[in-house]
Amino acid sequence: MDPAAPPLARVLLVAGPSGSGKSRLARRLHEQHGWPLLQLDDFYHEGDAPGLPMSPLGLVDWDDVGSWDLEAAVTAIERLCRTGRTDVPRYDISTSSRTGQHVVELGGAPFVVAEGIFAADVVAPLRERGLLERAWSVHHHPWVTFARRLARDLAEHRKPPLTLWRRGHVLRRAEPGIVAAHQALGAEPVRAKIAERLAEELGSQAADAGRSRPTGGTRG
């Protein structure tokens, strides 16, 4: 992996509060454009890792970036953008443990979509490496996010219902501050539909640039 060489692809980061719709947006971009998808929440530390941050509820604070392996996430993103493939862990949120790993390949795509609640924290490292294309913080009204998050987490049995209810209200009250913090880190606050339109424009520009490149040939 040569950090001095131009990358094969650049990154579209999708951040946002838990339940804001960033995962749905990232999946749509993956399905519509064929851009590889990295789910950054798979880089959480395991539940028995030493030194995990604790919340006022007496539980591991999974909304603190200290519960997440930032260095491993940045390394995986850079490897994908520069070599065309990378290994990514599989993480089970309900058990707070890694259950395996899988390979993500670039497949010639001009962009990589990387999403997660800590995606804004990799804006600076990716910008320093020349890998960042755009970074968005997807958000809605806090009560909308609360309802969507609670429905999702209950359906997926992520944690006990009382824990989800209490955590949900903590996050609802914190949401404006979370979005502001993402903006301070370099992620643009947007609604999901706006980000989707901007991504469509970037895809069209990349396709036009690809068509305009000379293909070479023989000289007479």
What features would you describe in this structure?
- There is one protein chain.
- With 220 residues, the protein is of the alpha/beta class.
- The protein has one domain: 3-Layer(aba) Sandwich (Rossmann fold).
- The chain is 42% helix and 19% strand.
- It has a five-stranded parallel sheet with strand order 2-5-1-6-7, sandwiched between helices. Strands 3-4 form a two-stranded antiparallel ribbon.
- A hairpin with a 4-residue loop joins strand 3 and strand 4.
- Helix 1 packs parallel to helix 6 and helix 4 packs across helix 5.
- The longest helix has 25 residues.
- The radius of gyration is 18 Å and the shape is globular.
- The chain starts with 9 loop residues before the first strand and ends in an 8-residue tail after the last helix.
- 34% of the residues are buried.
- It holds the Pfam family AAA_33.
- GO terms for molecular function: kinase activity.
List the helices and strands and how they pair.
Elements: E1 10-15, H1 22-33, E2 37-39, H2 70-83, E3 85-92, E4 97-105, E5 111-115, H3 123-128, E6 132-138, H4 142-155, H5 161-185, E7 188-190, H6 192-212
Parallel strand pairs: 1-5, 1-6, 2-5, 6-7
Antiparallel strand pairs: 3-4
